[in-house]
Please model this.
Amino acid sequence: MAGIGGAETTGKKARWGLVNVVVVVYALFPVLWIVSLSFKSKKAISEGGFFPTEWTLDNYAAIFSTTEFIRPLFNSIGIAIIATLIAVVFGTMAAYAIARLDFPGKQLLVGVSLLIAMFPQVSLVSPLFNIERALGLFDTWPGLILPYITFSLPLAIYTLSAFFKEIPWELEKAAKMDGATPGQAFQKVIAPLAAPGVFTTAILVFIFCWNDFLFAISLTSTETSRTVPAALAFFTGSSQFEDPTGTTSAAAVVITIPIIIFVLFFQRRIVAGLTSGAVKG
Amino acid sequence: MADIVLDKVTKKYPDGALAVQEVNLEIADGEFIILVGPSGCGKSTTLNMLAGLEDITAGELRIGGERVNEKAPKDRDIAMVFQSYALYPHMTVRENMAFPLRLAKIDDKIVDAKVAEASKILDLGQHLDRKPSNLSGGQRQRVAMGRAIVRNPKAFLMDEPLSNLDAKLRVQMRTEVSRLQKNLGTTTVYVTHDQTEAMTLGDRVVVMRGGAVQQVGSPQYLYENPANLFVAGFIGSPAMNFIPATLENGELSTALGTFPLSDKVRRMAERGRRPVREVIMGLRPEHLEDASMVEGANSSRGATFTTQVDVLESMGSDKYAYFSISGKRASSAQLDELAADVGVSDLGAGQTVARISAASRAKEGSSLDVWVDLDKIQLFDPESGKALTYSD
Ligand SMILES: Nc1ncnc2c1ncn2[C@@H]1O[C@H](COP(=O)(O)OP(=O)(O)OP(=O)(O)O)[C@@H](O)[C@H]1O
Ligand SMILES: [Mg+2]
Model:
């Protein structure tokens, strides 16, 4: 009997494994293509095969030798981190309030944040452009950070309030009975339990800010605040008439690296079921 | 340690629900008080007001002689054990138990000593470095108790602390709670649903119904002298039998027959302000007996009727004989409420049960002479539910 059961699960595992491989290959193929392109010499690019016939690191050397790429990379990292930090802090507070408290205007707050999340961002680009120019925010870091916070907050609030709702109310009561102030109860009991949610949210918000092209291209004009996705569009080869495919690919590969690091770094923290064992038997 | 006084404490929730009305209760220092009553009667609300987790709408709460209505939970120095245990899942057992002490900024050495002491009392020594999620239900329950006892609070509050345990473990933990409370001598307020816990644990039992206190007293006193139908039906298992009766010329006519009133019962019944004709007769199962089992000396203060046994359950030490009564059923608002809580449609209509001697030769389906202890008959006014035979 055990043998039959074993064979069944092995078969199941094999099937699932196959499906997984298909999905992963399908998703990763364009990425691999870009990686391959970034290692191709100019001649190899024009040949068009998947594997480079001629390997080279020239493209990487090229992008790191100009401020055309380094400065936007610096902007991207700075802007995305600051926006993520602020959005997550405010999002945590708002989500906690929404999950735990009954206050007048709660439904309104939830409704408005949903509205913001659904608003087509394209339609806001020209007004924002004008507003930022009038306020002197155009082509500055805050000029990008502000809209990023605005559009990632709803996402943060939604993700986080789902996590907060999972935490048993009684833990907070227990902390209060154990002598904690509301602040201590939050800091020592609720926050550690909400940590997986906070990290998940941070990753989502960071990716949103990191990948944004629309605001980056319309609200910046120089290297002082242009981020990498926008800068890529301005890439040229060493001469105006040269094809920048190789360098663009190299840059694209480089900017996926921080995301991978970010996810790997926080992934360890996203332990599902952290709250298990809090209640009952 | 301290005494707790509830002075006309009332709770009205923001949505208008009146959960607790004018509860007066004086809990002595070191006393073990049980709050019992059907679901939704305001037990948890009362406990949460003691804890400071719910505001008190009106009235005054004094702990150790001091008004604490406005004090935050942390300033009341009271520990609470929750039904769900509410252990901190990200902390080990040791950290869970040390948490209240750490918040009080107590010296590390003392914290360690106190945790060690509590874990010894509760037999948690070998689990100190494990997380709550890896513990069994009973162990979690003990950790919750441990977290409460480490800091020697003025009082313990427990809200159905054993209701998540299986039956066997519940019995075991019940004795453990009782022993713990006796050794520590800490004032304890304990909420429960469970008959047995209510009867066995407390010094005094508070029976609540619809947010109001029905009766307060020692378990034995409540059992023998229920103030009204609700308390009579709630305390005791199997529950008291309720049979409609008419009171006339010192005699009780019921569907079972006519019983003379004993002097004791008549004296108490006649104290009533108005002469009540229609009454509800209450009879505990153990005050009914197989007539052939009753000794001569006792039989004189009893009466006998004959009935048909529907079901006979042997419990080993004694037997439960169930029989039905023809005619109308005992009905009263309080009985209906009790019936709704235990989940039967009508308590007064259920079967009548007698707890008879194990030696009885009664058989299912055959008739049986049943002896009634007339001294133990209780009479209730069906309208108000008040006991006519109640002596203060
Ligand atoms: N937060 C609340 N808002 C409004 N009404 C409430 C609230 N909590 C409880 N109530 C009401 O107050 C009454 C008493 O509730 P409580 O929780 O004290 O009952 P309980 O005796 O503990 O019942 P149980 O045995 O089921 O736990 C109930 O009728 C309930 O509906
Ligand atoms: Mg309750």
